[in-house]
């Protein structure tokens, strides 16, 4: 599963979804948490991103694991495999942080949507969830950068003079 798309390794193609949707989730979740007056306008987009971004991260992780196995089977040097392992380590963390951000963002959407079967929570609950969302968004964005940077180094270091 997730080995090839039209004869090309799937991972370099699939990561584009993660590279787009995860930072958009980070940004959308922060704006939703910090600017309440925009919630009605961007809530639907943040909801979609809270679902799509973790799926994109998971697909990138799975396709990356498959590509790593192919590189090992093809006899790539240990130096390259070590770089790929570092990249995979960052990617795994990115997946988990993205999943956590997606879940907490969904919780924030639920408690702030104005239509709920339960009474409105105290303001401190909304503030606490907002702080968690912002913290997770920042950490997730950092790991997206680290993952992409380490992947680019693994691919291009030594390939371009």
Automatic annotation (TrEMBL):
UniProtKB keywords: Membrane, Transmembrane, Transmembrane helix
Domain DUF2231: 7-160
Pfam families xrefs: DUF2231 (PF09990)
Transmembrane segments: 13-35, 42-61, 94-111, 123-146
InterPro entries xrefs: DUF2231_TM
Protein name in UniProt: DUF2231 domain-containing protein
